[in-house]
Task: inverse folding
């Protein structure tokens, strides 16, 4: 089955700096890769996703890149702000699994003002 | 839309008691997922339903756990009897069938003493 590894487990940056979180997956048939943000006391919320026919996707200060050959994908947050502090999860799935997401263990991002 | 609704938000019970967690998915969504989140194991998929039918329950830890979805707008996750190791945050999520974006509820924090 699919296995998703996520690094680092914790990340501390200064406000305004960039943050990068990396994930690798094992199932070459996976073709959907979402990123979720979880704030304290809340459920995870989708912030960006990418499908395997695309190498990069941007949405304002966040971007995701995908390298299918190497089976890894990354989340990039630029100009970080204190409100970006949260736990971020990557996930992977196959389309035919009808949404069965396999999540990484999460990265706790702290943005220091 | 109110989003995914879970109840109760917090549950404290004693070992051996029955616990029932409830979920109302987003109206129109026909896939529903139950997850468990702990520090040690991260986010684990327990079971998911498509059109009220359980598709994959391989994540259900043991026979003490059961889940039902009697109709498109309601699901329950029951633990009987509960044990201290069941203490965790339980999330319900829903999505459109064939789509991948999962919308999470706020979770139920379960403490079994």
Result:
């Amino acid at each position: 089955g699919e296995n998703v590894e996520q690094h680092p487990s914790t990340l501390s940056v200064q406000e305004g700096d960039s943050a990068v979180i990396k994930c690798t997956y094992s199932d070459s048939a996976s073709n959907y890769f979402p990123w979720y943000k979880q704030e304290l006391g809340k459920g995870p919320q989708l912030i960006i996703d990418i499908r395997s026919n695309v190498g990069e996707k941007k949405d304002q200060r966040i971007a995701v890149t995908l390298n299918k050959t190497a089976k890894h994908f990354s989340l990039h947050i630029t100009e970080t702000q204190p409100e970006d502090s949260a736990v971020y999860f990557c996930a992977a799935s196959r389309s035919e699994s009808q949404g069965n997401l396999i999540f990484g263990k999460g990265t706790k991002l702290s943005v220091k003002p | 839309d109110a989003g995914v609704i879970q109840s109760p938000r917090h549950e404290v019970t004693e070992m051996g008691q029955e616990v029932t967690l409830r979920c109302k998915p987003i109206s129109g969504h026909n896939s529903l997922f139950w997850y468990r989140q702990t520090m040690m194991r991260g986010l684990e998929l327990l079971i998911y339903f498509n059109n009220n039918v359980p598709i994959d329950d391989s994540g259900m830890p043991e026979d003490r756990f059961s889940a039902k979805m009697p109709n498109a707008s309601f699901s329950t996750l029951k633990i009987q009897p509960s044990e201290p190791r069941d203490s965790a945050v339980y999330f319900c999520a829903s999505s459109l069938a064939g789509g991948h974006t999962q919308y999470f509820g706020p979770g139920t924090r379960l403490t079994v003493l």
User: Anything to note?
Assistant: Chain B has no helices and eleven strands. The CA atoms of residues 30 and 77 of chain B lie 17 Å apart. The mean pLDDT of chain B is 93.
